[in-house]
Specification:
Strand content: 15-25%
Distance between the termini: 23 Å
Order of helices and strands: HEHEEEHEHEHEHEHEEHHHEH
Bound molecules: flavin-adenine dinucleotide
Shape: globular
CATH architecture: Alpha-Beta Barrel
CATH topology: TIM Barrel
Strand order of the largest sheet: 9-8-7-6-5-2-1-11-10
Structural class: alpha/beta
Radius of gyration: 20 Å
Helix content: 40-55%
CATH class: Alpha Beta
Number of strands: 11
Number of domains: 1
């Protein structure tokens, strides 16, 4: 069953979450611990993010600071496979366009196909802070729709070298990203929605949203999507805030607003333990409202928040 099929058959709101591959040099145990602490809530699937190379400043042997290109979190495909093998939970590795050549993407798809992983999230990839990433535009998929088309070709047995083969036995099923508060580069919401519709028309079976802290933004977004004929499930993605500085960082990175009532509660906190508590309460209320609204699944962003997600799940599931 594909992720979308799983979601569509849910009679009550289910649980899923996203995690990151470990930083280079770390083992996979922390990933396993995260899953151990959340698996009792019956995750329908676990997403594993993907990260391109970026510029980093490191001190060399001579004590001088050097600018190097480093991929800090490789291993998405391997992490996905090891989770699926160890826990038997459906995995959704993220595949990103920018930062990876089309050939690298094709090889990743071949690996995933051999590994029996056929659900992916198709994304353009982070590119907001261009000075953070080395320019590597040639040969890459520029937009998520281009990557979706490469996946469609792959499913049909059409490879980059022009050879035509039989269609793959189990085609990749994929979802795409959606932005209740508009993608920051989009000139306006209507244009963003038209690009989203194009991704769905290309074959995306569901939309997974960027994090939001005001459910109204999600409900309005769903209405707008339905109004232009996007009929696939729109999976809400949310995150419990765990530190005071996320008040400024999250809106900057993810272009999402933090409602003033929530921000006010966070500002009153004396330390991050208190912030965590407020974050859990807010995220729990968001979840309960989404559940009441009948969403088939809620997707949680666990980065720096596993324990908080666990507390939310205890209250909601
Ligand atoms: P696109 O759909 O390509 O859209 C990007 C922008 O271009 C939008 O403004 C859109 O309106 C516009 N656009 C789209 N198509 C066209 C076109 N043909 N011509 C002109 N404009 C167009 N990033 C990572 O690097 N790794 C991850 O693992 C990751 N996981 C994510 C998971 C989720 C659920 C979400 C919501 C985001 C994730 N991101 C991840 C971030 C994502 O890569 C960025 O938000 C990125 O800037 C846009 O990705 P996209 O797939 O939405 O891009």
């Amino acid at each position: 069953m594909t992720a979308a099929e799983l979601v569509l058959k849910n009679k009550e709101t289910k649980f899923s979450f996203e995690l990151l591959p470990p930083l280079k040099g770390n083992d996979i145990e922390k990933v396993y611990k995260t899953i151990e602490s959340l698996k009792e809530f019956d995750p329908q699937f676990i997403n594993i993010t993907s990260h391109r190379e970026e510029f980093s400043f490191v001190t060399n042997d001579k004590g001088l600071i050097e600018k190097r290109i480093i991929r800090k979190r490789p291993g998405t495909v391997a992490v996905a496979a090891s989770i699926q093998n160890k826990f038997g939970i459906k995995v959704i590795p993220h595949i990103i366009g920018r930062g990876f050549t089309k050939s690298e993407t094709e090889y990743a798809l071949i690996d995933l196909n051999f590994l029996g992983i056929h659900d992916i999230l198709v994304l353009r990839g982070d590119d907001t802070h261009k000075d953070k990433y080395p320019a590597r535009t040639e040969e890459c998929n520029q937009y998520a729709i281009d990557l979706a088309n490469q996946v469609n070709d792959f499913n049909r047995g059409k490879y980059l070298d022009g050879t035509a083969n039989e269609p793959v036995a189990t085609p990749f099923a994929y979802g795409v990203a959606g932005y209740p508060e508009r993608h920051e580069e989009a000139p306006n919401m209507d244009s963003d929605l038209l690009h989203l519709k194009a991704k769905v028309d290309a074959g995306a079976e569901y939309v997974m949203t960027q994090m939001f802290f005001d459910n109204k933004k999600y409900f309005d977004f769903v209405d707008k999507c339905r109004a232009i004929g996007i009929t696939v499930p729109i999976i809400p993605g949310i995150k419990p805030i765990t530190t005071a500085n996320q008040l400024t960082i999250l809106p900057k990175i993810f272009s999402c607003e933090i409602p003033e009532a929530f921000a006010k509660e966070i500002r009153k906190c004396k330390d991050n333990d208190a912030v965590k508590q407020v974050g859990v309460e807010w995220c729990t209320q968001q979840s309960l409202e989404l559940k009441k609204h009948g969403v088939p699944i809620i997707h949680y962003y666990t980065m720096m928040a596993t324990q908080s997600v666990r507390k939310v799940a205890e209250a909601v599931y």
